[in-house]
TrEMBL record, chain A:
This is Peptide ABC transporter substrate-binding protein. The keyword Nucleotide-binding does not apply. Residues 86-447 form the Solute-binding protein family domain. GO terms for biological process: peptide transport. PROSITE patterns: TAT. It comes from Roseovarius spongiae. Its main location: periplasm. InterPro entries: Peptide/Ni-bd (IPR030678), SBP_5 (IPR039424), SBP_5_dom (IPR000914), TAT_signal (IPR006311). SUPFAM superfamilies: Periplasmic binding protein-like II. It is found in: Periplasm. Belongs to the bacterial solute-binding protein 5 family. Keywords: Signal, Transport.
From TrEMBL, chain B:
It comes from the Bacteria. The chain crosses the membrane at residues 28-48, 89-110, 122-144, 150-170, 191-212, 258-279. It is found in: Cell membrane. InterPro entries: BP-dependent_transpt_permease, MetI-like, MetI-like_sf, OppC_N. GO terms for cellular component: plasma membrane. Keywords: Cell membrane, Membrane, Peptide transport, Protein transport, Transmembrane, Transmembrane helix, Transport. Belongs to the binding-protein-dependent transport system permease family. It is a multi-pass membrane protein. This is ABC transporter permease.
Length: 530, 291
């Protein structure tokens, strides 16, 4: 069975037609636009967090992927816009032969920098299989990958073979983190065994290269001199500046230090009423999920009745009002509306119920003798959430101490590899990014992830089984029901109080034409001067 | 004639100093400001019209009104109450920090100034090493290790202030150790402890206290700075730095939290600086501006 994917399959003829059209367009475009294409300019953009890994096989988070999109190639990439679509990038042809076989053929002529030659199917095989061979923490993104078979007659062609069907393949795996292709020769030279090369990419293939990285200051990308692909870089230089707090980014934008930034929801109405000069503001739905987590393995919050008392005492609409100025809606779980597995209702109503909370607290033996702690990132919105929860839990007699952490400290809080701090963690306000497949939400809460990203240390065999089975479930309704059940299990454990998916307003200079995913995530590689 | 001379009474030193202070308008202004701040800190629970941490989602980011004299912050908390409670935190930090720094700095300065040369060299090396750290950067490093809290702020500022006082005491002690009255005491067999406690200490204490009073704004600004960066007191404790940071983040919504957070820092800085300069002029006439 041959199943064409819902993407643009660009053949050689199509490519030639496109190239001719592009040449004509370049020849006839106004002088100003021709100049930017040749010379470009500089873009200063905001990012919520600094990068910490540029090896796609071992990527840590979306902020790393934002940079990877610019410096490597994938078989296919997300199309900027309001709909979740993908299009071929490195692949000239990409098709699903059957449920477990995906055939690809690379565009000839994609070069790696540093003299590492042309990208071939051998590089694709190496890039994908090393994720499993080296037991990457994100190997789940490749799910049941068995191998990549090479076409003996065509050095550009091969077939991805799966053990079983894998639903997130087209939405997450291929167009996102682990889908990036690295140079086998360069990585082997750099690492010896093909393992994690961390922050030092041995070769680039994208329109930009990593020119400089100053931790917690900026990531500087410049044009790749060896690049000859179809995606012309819009800028000579892109600086991505990490700022934990959107409010700080807003000030930086107003001061002229940024050309593109996210806006906090509490500032949105103000900016809409009184936007900065020469600025466009756009609103996008968000896939983020924000929740309050409770450490099941902590001596105090290990008490399930106490956790449930906390769940019921938290009034989510009040938090929406205080932290987001009413611009965000309460969520029902991890999975945002419109995605497979979204729940219409949570088990606990958004408003909670103080009487029920008191009942659970009584069953738990009353409030803890010592104040419990709630850890939060040092950002205005999150601090506000923590302070409101502190006040809400105070209503049932639970004293709370707010621990504000800087990003470096916060993002390692529940990780066993970073010491014993996870043992003392009790409550935490957390937010994860999400991709357009429910797998990407639930996969962080399996037993395998305890002490890695599963900071609540929630471990449920039924959840793990459902998470595994849902990956290959082709029936959409059945799959949705599985994810709904998984969120029920999480909530029933008492370890989670789901808060919101937020929303993603952004603003940018009128001189910038951004390329954004449907959830407003920037695809810097597609940014260009307007 | 002899009777007339006997009836003349020398005015007490305190009276003389008070008189000099009264004749210094900036000093008096400083004293008034300091007294207001100190009194507000002491009587904060009775003066604050609302619970400073009480969240009221109705009147958020409100301008000053009859109910809320300084307006409200992003959680509807009364800014006046938070400023008053913040003053208590600021004064607590100032007193605890300077108390600790003065005590330890004094003891180490006396030891360095009066002790053997090798000990002096070691202590100087330590003082200079500690002083080489910028206070805020050192504070951020300590906070990253032990977590933010009021005690961390006190610890950081105290540690970085100790060398300042210790160096001054050391210099003065070294100047005094060769003085005739000290040599005489030593010749008469007085113990080192007695010489330091009875003869050296009173001579170094006055200038040290003046310096400490002038350092109060620095300490308060450091605490506010760390709190502004989210590394000071824990939320929802209303440090002036926290109020300022909240205001900064919501400045497009309302300017009042920024004004409420910065005004007391300005007042305290001016008050202690004016008062400290006046005291310095009084106790150290050589430095009088008009002399």
């Amino acid at each position: 069975m041959t199943k064409k994917i819902h993407t643009i399959t660009l053949g050689r003829r199509g490519f030639l037609q496109g190239a001719v059209a592009t040449g004509l367009a370049a020849g006839t475009m106004p002088l100003g636009q021709a100049i930017w294409a040749a010379e470009g300019a500089m873009l200063n953009a905001f990012s919520y967090a600094d990068i910490d890994k540029l090896d796609p096989g071992f990527y840590q988070n979306g902020y790393n992927v934002d940079v990877m999109n610019c410096i490597y190639h994938k078989l296919a990439r997300y199309v900027p816009g309001r709909e979740w679509e993908i299009e071929n990038e490195a692949a000239e042809e990409l098709e699903q032969v059957d449920d477990t076989h995906i055939r690809f053929r690379l565009k000839p002529g994609i070069m790696f920098s540093g003299g590492y030659g042309e990208m071939t199917a051998e590089d694709v095989k190496f890039s994908f299989e090393r994720v499993l061979e080296h037991d990457s923490p994100v190997k789940g993104d490749w799910g049941p990958l068995k191998e990549v078979q090479l076409d003996p007659d065509d050095k550009y062609a091969g077939t991805i073979v799966l053990e079983k069907p894998f639903q997130p393949l087209w939405t997450i795996t291929i167009p996102y983190g682990v889908g990036h292709i690295v140079s086998k020769k360069a990585v082997m030279e750099a690492t010896g065994d093909g393992g994690d090369f961390g922050m030092k990419p041995p070769a680039f293939s994208g329109p930009y290269i990593l020119d400089e990285w100053k931790p917690n200051q900026y990531v500087k990308l410049t044009r790749n001199p060896d690049y000859s692909g179809e995606l012309k870089p819009g800028y000579d230089e892109i600086r991505i500046i990490p700022m934990d707090d959107e409010k700080v980014a807003e000030r930086a934008y107003e001061a002229g230090d940024l050309d593109y930034t996210g806006i906090s929801l509490s500032s949105l109405s103000n900016y809409k009423a009184n936007p900065p000069a020469d600025t466009t503001i756009k609103e996008f739905p968000s896939l983020y999920y924000v929740w309050v987590g409770m450490n099941i393995d902590n001596e105090v919050t290990g008490n399930e009745d106490l956790r449930k008392a906390i769940q019921w005492a938290i009034n989510v609409p009040q938090i929406m009002d205080a932290a987001y100025f009413g611009e965000a809606k309460p969520s029902t779980g991890l999975i945002a509306p419109g995605l497979t597995g979204h729940r219409e209702k949570a088990l606990i109503p958004p408003e909670g119920d103080l009487d029920k909370a008191r009942e659970y607290l009584e069953k738990a033996g009353g409030p803890p003798a010592q104040p419990i702690t709630i850890d939060t990132l040092n950002a205005t919105t999150w601090k506000t959430i923590a302070e409101v929860i502190q006040a809400q839990l105070g209503q049932i007699g639970i004293q709370v101490q707010v621990n504000v952490q800087d990003s470096g400290s916060f993002w390692t809080l529940g990780m066993e590899s970073e010491g014993d701090r996870w043992k003392n963690m009790q409550l935490v306000v957390n937010r994860f990014s999400m991709m357009p497949d429910p797998f990407y939400a639930t996969t962080w809460f399996t037993s395998d992830q305890v002490g890695i990203w599963n900071w609540e240390r929630f471990s449920n065999p039924e959840f793990d089984k459902l998470n595994d089975e849902a990956l290959s479930e082709a029936d959409k309704d059945k799959r949705a029901a599985m994810y709904r059940k998984m969120q029920d299990l999480m909530e029933e454990s008492g370890a989670y109080r789901f808060l919101t998916h937020e929303a993603s307003p952004v603003m940018y200079r009128d001189s910038v034409e951004p390329a954004l995913r449907p959830d407003a995530r920037p695809l810097y590689v597609g940014f260009k001067p307007a | 004639m002899a009777e007339t001379t006997a009836s003349y009474k020398e005015p007490s030193a305190l009276r003389v100093y008070a008189g000099q202070l009264r004749r210094n308008p900036m000093g008096m202004l400083g004293l008034v400001l300091v007294l207001i701040v100190v009194a507000t800190a002491i009587f904060a629970p009775w003066l604050a019209p609302y619970d400073p941490n009480q969240i009221m989602l109705g009147p958020r980011m409100g301008a000053p009104s009859a109910e809320h004299w300084l307006g409200t912050d992003q959680l509807g908390r009364d800014l006046l109450s938070r400023v008053i409670a913040g003053g208590r935190i600021a004064m607590l930090v100032a007193v605890a920090t300077l108390g600790a720094a003065l005590s330890v700095g004094l003891a180490l300065g006396l030891i360095a100034g009066y002790g053997p040369r090798w000990l002096d060299n070691i202590l100087l090396l330590i003082f200079d090493a500690v002083r080489s750290f910028p206070v805020i950067v050192f504070g951020l490093a300590v906070v990253a290790l032990v977590g933010p809290s009021l005690y961390t702020v006190i610890l950081v500022v105290a540690i970085t202030s100790i060398p300042i006082y210790a160096r001054i005491v050391r210099t003065q002690t070294q100047a005094l150790r060769g003085a005739e009255f000290i040599l005489a005491e030593r010749a008469m067999g007085a113990s080192t402890l007695r010489i330091l406690g009875v003869h050296v200490l009173p001579n170094v204490l006055g200038p040290l206290l003046i310096l400490a009073s002038m350092d109060v704004p620095m300490v308060i600004a450091t605490e506010a700075g760390l709190s502004f960066l989210g590394m000071g007191v824990r939320p929802p404790a209303p440090s002036w730095g926290t109020i300022l940071n909240d205001g900064y983040n919501f400045i497009r919504n309302s300017p009042w939290p920024v004004i409420a957070g910065s005004a007391p820092i300005i007042i305290v800085t001016l008050g202690f600086t004016f008062l400290g300069e006046a005291l310095r002029d009084i106790f150290d006439p050589k430095l009088r501006r008009n002399s």
